[in-house]
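S.,

Sequence below, as promised.
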Amino acid sequence: MMNKMNFEDLDNAHKEIEIQKIDKEARAAELLLANIELDYQSSEKIKRANELKLANVELGIQIKEKHKRAEELIIANFELNVQLNKQTKQESKINELQISSDLLKLSSQYSRSLIEAIRDPIFAISLYGKITDVNYASINVTEVSRPHLIGSEFCSYYKDLKAAKKCLRDIFEVGFVVDFPLEIKDGKLIPVLVNGSVYKDENGNIIGAVIIARDVSERRVFEKDLTAARDFAEMASLVAEDAQRNAELATVIAENAVKAKQQFLSNMSHEIRTPMNAIIGFTKVVLKTDLTDKQKEYLSAIKVSGDAMVVLINDILDLAKVDAGKMLFEKIPFKLKASVSSMLHLFEPKIQEKNLLLIKSYDENIPSVLMGDPVRLHQIILNLVSNAVKFTTLGKISVSVRLMKEDKHQVNIEFSVKDTGIGIKKDKIDTVFGSFQQATSGTSRIYGGTGLGLSIVKKLIESQGGSVSVESELEKGSTFTFNLPFNKTSLDVKDIAKESYSEYEALKIKVLVVEDIPLNQLLMKTLLDDFGFERDIASNGKIAIEKFKNNHYDIILMDLQMPEMNGFETTIYLREVMNSKVPIIALTADVTTVDLEKCKAVGMNDYISKPVDERLLYNKIISFVKKPSNYNPEDLISINNDKSCIDLSYLSKRTKSNPDLMMEMIGLYLEQTPPLIAVMKKSLDNKDWKLLHSAVHKIIPSFSIMGINNDFEKMAIKVKDFAISQVQTDDISKMIIELENICNQACVELKLEVEKIKKLKK
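The prediction came back faster than expected:
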């Protein structure tokens, strides 16, 4: 069994070996195949290694290419960004161009509209003289449509072809033409003035011209009319020159006539007043003596007649003074109510005698004290009330005074005098204010009078800036109404008229009377003796000076017209040579030509007209003797150094109280005035009348602006007139000194005012 098992094991072993052999052979075959494959793989590996080498080389090349491509890509990206930016900018530019194009279109349309709206023909011309564009005016004036105009010859539309071609040639050669005259052919030949200039491209090359043809047909008509008007004006000028020469001749004749009239009135005044002065004066003196009733009756009749004669003379001379512009109006404080009341009181006896009723009405709102001329107001009221009493036999006379307007500086007062008298016819109302005019031819015969009163009233009122009117009905009465402005004042009024003789009888006053007419000398002696004054009489200026040297006098009464040495010459000698400050009152019968400015300029303190009113004479003597005279050249026109010579109310009103503006105005005055005064004095010394006229002309407006007394402005005007006429040299020298003094005083006061204004500003 064991063998059997061995054989079986052996057999199995052989089988296994065979299997292993087969396996080995299979393995060998496989190994062979593997070797072959390995060789193949080795060769493949070598091939792959070679390919790998090639691949590595190619990869290196590719990497280089990639780097190159990357760099190119960066450049491409940069270029792309640049292109994108360019594209964005281009798009922006395209948008801007589009906007510009739209604006250009609008502008072009606007420009085109403007061009089309121009009424003058406009042509665009090529270098060859062809029309390239036109406006509507060109179509209208040529009466040719736009398509036919464009491309046609510009010169063919003008009457003068040669002139039109010259116009084009000048434009292209010179670059422009101005107002080249041509005529457009349109059936009626319209005259035009051609204005044209070339236009160029961006390189400065001329590519055409623009021409405007302005229609001057209306201008030609206007020029023709203007020429005719100029010819007419020249003829009118010649006529005017002739008229001016005639007017100048007439003015000279009129001035001579006025001078002759003034001289006649002056002589008449002096000749009539001188004896009237004695007649009335001695009548008053005799009436104070013991007389029988018959003597008093006769003397009273003489006095009434004399007074009537003086009233007549006063009327004539007042009228002459107003006409000649010599009427002067005072600006003094007075009580209006008392003034009106005193005037009406004079008429009460006559009104009672005629059994008339006097009704007075006074507005209590009127300020108690006003600045004005009470004497002239009395004269106005005297005339109106006197007429009312004269022409009224039954009924009443009403006098009313009421306030019409009032402001800070001024009031306007209305005065009314109403009567129930004979009245005035409607056709005569406009003539009652004329000289020597009365309502009817029988008025003078029945009621008396010269017809001068109302004429004087009207001129006195209007000369003071007022107005007068009348309403009347025949047989029912008349109402005369006038308005006058008055300045307001804070000054008080001293009523000198209330002083009586007895108060001053104990005063020892010595008076020198300088008078050449014996009758007047006797009258003055009588009056002064009645006053209780001592007196000396001198027949002329020379005798007066001798008496003055050897005696003391408190006051001098100086006649103006005397032989040997007149009143002006005597006063100048007393003031300048003897340095006397004694008050001097002028006595004159010549109230027409008496120059109050001259009286004051030579040093007189006041004046009294003849016939002398004894009450007025007494009051004036007392007023001057009671107060110290202290004569000073600066006081010639009532300027008191204790008071300000300036009044800045006008300046304040004009500057609306603006302190800076006021100081600027005052500063200009302080800067300009001293040099002007120096020029005035120097030009007078050098007799440079033109320079004197110029300097005074510049200084005149400053008087009213700085509120300096109006008399100085009048004085400056006289100096200015003198610079033209060179008359009255002695007076002018004194006036310039006075102007210098007042201007220097004003400068001092204005400097103080500036300091006050500065303090107020702080």
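The CA atoms of residues 28 and 455 lie 179 Å apart.

Coffee later?
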